[in-house]
């Protein structure tokens, strides 16, 4: 059931409605709006909120309505913390034009009020728009301060317009060579099904141990697949050699963009370039879904904002992400840096304590 969050009379030009996944009447309307917005993102989709609700979160959406049509919105994910407090998080939202100050101010005001009502320590917002579009005056007016980001700020976006030969022409020569080499070496890529998620998770465990990152439980990847794959919004791609699965990739598609969300590989036959074959297959799958952009989902934050300025890549002291950067850069996409994260602090003392715990966790990883 939709309900107004604002007290009447509303001093704004838009009507504003609040709903949660549990009482949503028209989730298709929301997803249609997000999918067709230049600032929409899969992390703001109804399905993503529904998926995260299976892991302790609850999704709430605020929609700005003008003449019966949604013109802006925000999906806030909330998770309970000890002592009856809450964490409130907006991944890649709000879905509003960054220069649309009235709409942004109204929807963020109400998101902060919603977070306060649910006893949140703070509200973290990570918009999908870029650094150049960021409105610093708005954050200052709302008393929101820069905070750490959960999603990667830097990424590489591959243009899927034109022919496949055009895509190949934009790539580094070594990447183009490795894609073709994989085929000559006998690498085949097939679409997996739900039964293949176990082997994908086993590959994730191998990759996490090799590259030093935490791997989620099998249930997480299974629920993600169940939420998106039956609707054609995700798939599981597996690279094989003589019947042995060497690597896997789970891309997602929403609107005109596809994302490389989860990927894994074994330690065997890496010289046969199974990961290059997988990325090529994911790009072709994304194109078949009507996507014009393939987001490679994250490169190191230290990479300079100017894509024409190369970077002196350090060795292992900076971690495995530098190898990931070299790999992703080869696909010829454009570098994109998001605006980052902003926090509306609702309990300063608990916010400080939360930040200290996060810093301690980062030092341990």
Detail the topology: elements first, then pairings:
Layout: E1 3-4, E2 15-20, H1 27-36, H2 46-52, E3 58-66, E4 69-80, E5 86-91, H3 101-117, E6 120-126, H4 136-141, E7 145-147, E8 154-159, H5 164-170, H6 173-184, E9 187-191, H7 197-211, H8 218-228, E10 237-241, E11 244-254, E12 257-265, H9 274-288, E13 293-295, H10 321-329, E14 334-337, E15 341-345, H11 348-364
Parallel strand pairs: 5-6, 12-13
Antiparallel strand pairs: 1-2, 2-3, 3-4, 4-5, 6-15, 7-15, 8-13, 8-14, 9-10, 10-11, 11-12
Describe the structure.
The chain is of the alpha+beta class. It folds into two domains: 3-151 and 339-364, 3-Layer(aba) Sandwich (Aminopeptidase); 154-337, Aminopeptidase, CATH 3.40.630.30. Helix content is 35%, strand content 25%. The protein has eleven helices and 15 strands. It has helices at 27-36, 46-52, 101-117, 136-141, 164-170, 173-184, 197-211, 218-228, 274-288, 321-329, 348-364; strands at residues 3-4, 15-20, 58-66, 69-80, 86-91, 120-126, 145-147, 154-159, 187-191, 237-241, 244-254, 257-265, 293-295, 334-337, 341-345. The strands form two sheets. An eight-stranded mixed beta sheet has the order 1-2-3-4-5-6-15-7, sandwiched between helices. Helix 2 packs antiparallel against helix 8 (218-228) and helix 6 (173-184) packs across helix 9. The longest helix has 17 residues, at 101-117. The chain is globular, with a radius of gyration of 21 Å. Mean pLDDT is 90; it is low at 1-10 and 315-319.
């Amino acid at each position: 059931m939709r309900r107004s969050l604002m007290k009447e009379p509303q001093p704004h030009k838009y009507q504003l409605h609040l709903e949660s996944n549990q009482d949503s009447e028209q989730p298709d309307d929301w997803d249609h709006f997000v999918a067709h917005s230049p600032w929409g993102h899969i992390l703001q989709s109804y399905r993503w909120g529904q998926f995260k609700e299976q892991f302790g979160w609850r999704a709430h959406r605020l929609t700005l309505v003008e003449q019966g049509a949604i013109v802006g919105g925000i999906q806030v994910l909330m998770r309970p913390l000890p002592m009856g407090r809450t964490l409130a998080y907006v991944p890649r939202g709000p879905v509003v034009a960054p220069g649309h100050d009235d709409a942004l101010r109204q929807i963020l005001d109400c998101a902060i009020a919603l977070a306060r009502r649910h006893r949140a320590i703070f509200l973290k917002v990570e918009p999908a728009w870029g650094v150049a579009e960021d409105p610093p005056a708005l954050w200052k007016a709302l008393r929101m301060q820069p905070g750490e980001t959960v999603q990667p700020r830097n990424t590489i976006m591959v243009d899927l317009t034109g022919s496949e030969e055009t895509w190949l022409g934009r790539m580094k020569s070594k990447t183009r060579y490795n894609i073709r080499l994989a085929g000559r070496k006998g690498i085949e890529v097939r679409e997996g099904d739900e039964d293949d998620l176990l082997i994908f998770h086993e590959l994730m465990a191998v990759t996490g141990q090799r590259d030093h990152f935490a791997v989620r439980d099998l249930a997480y990847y299974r629920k993600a697949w169940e939420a998106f794959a039956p609707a054609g919004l995700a798939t599981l791609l597996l690279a094989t050699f003589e019947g042995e699965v060497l690597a896997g990739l789970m891309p997602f598609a929403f609107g005109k963009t596809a994302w490389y969300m989860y990927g894994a590989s074994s330690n065997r036959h890496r010289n046969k370039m199974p990961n290059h074959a997988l990325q090529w297959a994911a790009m072709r799958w994304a194109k078949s879904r009507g996507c014009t952009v393939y987001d490679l989902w994250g490169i190191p934050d230290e990479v300079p904002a100017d894509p024409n300025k190369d970077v002196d890549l350090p060795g292992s002291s900076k971690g495995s992400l530098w190898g990931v950067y070299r790999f992703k850069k080869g696909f010829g996409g454009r570098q994109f840096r998001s605006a980052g994260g902003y926090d509306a602090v609702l309990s300063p003392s608990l916010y400080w304590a939360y930040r200290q715990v996060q810093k301690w966790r980062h030092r341990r990883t």
